[in-house]
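Put briefly, the fold is written as integer tokens. One such record reads:
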Amino acid sequence: MNVYIQRASAILSKIDQLASISETTTGITRTFGSPSFLEGSRLIRQWMEALGLQTRVDTIGSVRGRWASPTKEARTFVIASHMDTVVNAGKFDGPLGIIMGLDLIEQFIQSEQPLPFHIELIAFSDEEGVRFHTTYLGSKVVAGSFDEALLDKKDASGTSLSDVIQAMGGDIGCLVSEAIQPQDWLGYFEIHIEQGPVLYNKAIPVAVVTDIAGQKRVEIMFRGMAGHAGTVPMQMRQDALCAASEFVLYVEQLAGNQSNLVATVGTLIVANAASNVIPGEVICSLDIRSNDEVILTKAYQLLQDASSQLGRARSVSVEWKLIQETASVACDARLTNLLATAIAESGYDVVRLVSGAGHDGVPISQVAPIAMLFVRCFEGISHNPLEQVELTDLAAALEVADQFMKKLITL
């Protein structure tokens, strides 16, 4: 285990180095296209070049490093994760998978063992979707599923995605050519913190991911009538916030009574808010997730119907807008079994988990078999500066990933 501890220590050092690059002094913020994002991109590319990888930054801003097989017609196995963050993030979500990928490739290079496939390490540019409110920008380009209509999407300042790509030096006319063609894929592997408490509570360092939950994100506007807080009788009010509040509680109740479903209202925006004004307009978000499409679809419809009923009961109009949806994804059975075997042979209990969080494997799964390894994180905390991974858990993940890659070579 000593060698894995040493490797894990080196990985943590790089994670800390990347974490020092941020738009803010508290927490970590590296949003797509920002100066901090570009600085982080340059650092990752330097690490790839130091290993001798063929590197480039593609049109959407993902950093890509390639270690070529001597067999030119070989297919490509991708190891990847994302380098962007949410606002006020922790340091492991995304970078862990990139930097562990660097270590795995370094072991192959040092062994001088000829590879039967090409390896491409990718630091995806935007998985979180913070700036343009659309996820998987980098991985959709690599998968060949990028929707060019997104180029007109604008951020809060009015800057379009197209403008940002061109400011980074990208040619939007080359987006299509950045994809790895379906016939050239061998597979996809991502190492990621669990972002949940299961492994922490079980005191187990790693788990194999079986599925990635489907998601629907909705924006709901409740529009009533603003009025004076002191003069409008309670029974005559059209209070948009009260309608929204009832909806929030119904969301919690529905998900709480249904297994294999989570639902969250994460934002409430009260227009022209004041202590002496009856709220006339409220916008709220809704995020619902399940790996069972039937459950997800039924819950979506129940919530939409409930919002309408609550609005009618309070004489408040309701506008329901689906912002984003992704279907649930099953990880590849063969790669998943291979990863489970690597866990068992490394001496750890095999835990199989569904990922409630979305990952870049979602768009990639449309063109390639995917596998994911979860690593335990402190109390399951993520998207938070308290995000933490223990050195010994990182070492365990390295041992498992080594075994997995060695098995992959022999297939």
Observations:
- The chain has two domains: 2-213+329-410, 220-326.
- Residues 221 and 283 are 4 Å apart (CA to CA).
- The first helix runs from residue 2 to 19.
- The mean pLDDT is 96.
